[in-house]
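Researcher: Next sequence.
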Amino acid sequence: MSDNIFLNEAINKQPNIVNHFFNMVNNRDLSHAYLLNGNSGVGKKAVAMSSTMALFCKNKINKQPCGKCNECRRITDGQHPDVVFIQPDGQSIKVEQVRTLKAEFSKRGVEGRLKVFIIIDAEKMTENAANSLLKFIEEPSGDVVSFLITTNKNMILPTIISRTQVIDFPTLSNRFFDDELKKIKTNPNDYNLLKSLTNSLETAKNLMNDDWFNKAKSAVENWFNYICKKDYCAFTTIQIEIMPLITDKNSKQQIINMMLQIWRDMLSVKYLNFQKNEIDFVDDFSNIDSFVIEISSIKLISIIQIMLECNNKMSINLNFQNILESTTLEILSELR
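Model: Next structure:
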């Protein structure tokens, strides 16, 4: 295994995709433009960098770049004169950056005929920048390969998408996602819940900021446990513990997702005999395991339907606290 950080990441996270690129490079089948689409942390940039190394490497082994030669090292360090990077300047990629890129496109490679351009966070191009990019993607000049990297291809101009080869990256395997969560010092008992909430490492990191995830998880567990006891203190939990955590639409959605997930845990324990390490709310397993004995299947399914209705209520912009309180009332009524 190479000690090159990008090569290792690409081979570990996306072996099929990166080997496909290595084969295309070896067979000279590479297209002029690719759109690499997928969640953050799935290895898109690593694949683009590794494929670029394969194009320039002089010491390839079994079609793979060595990751160690002068060419590979300069690409890894961002110092190769024929490999150009563009990323957001502040919040966006501006038209001036694309114009600079176009000027580079018109030049021959400094050390050869080939030039490679890697555009990071391509979805953050301004409208003018995207239109400017479209013009020279339509008519590539010279021996040029472009990699556009995005977390949301739906924000890319359809005309750009139609002129690139779109590669959709699968989410990371559970093993690799767990490894990444371990790096950000996540409690192993929280792995399952985080993976149910998101497939994006960046989103997982954001959830962990300022201890938001732990506070939200604790609040939802308290709310659930009061409901299990048919205790109307569940309302107090909404006002005192949950609402202070609500800062934007995303935080609302994550709270709803957590609430829904704890009831799905109930369903999994009741019908599928899930054990502690298989559910999302690992730390609340004893309460869940006790309550599934008391609740009927009909009531449990009804409660999950009530929770699912929260998303419809959010879509019509009802007051979020009212949504949670009315949902709590409905669930408590169901449990009578």
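Model: The chain has a mean pLDDT of 91. Residues 226 and 273 are 24 Å apart (CA to CA).
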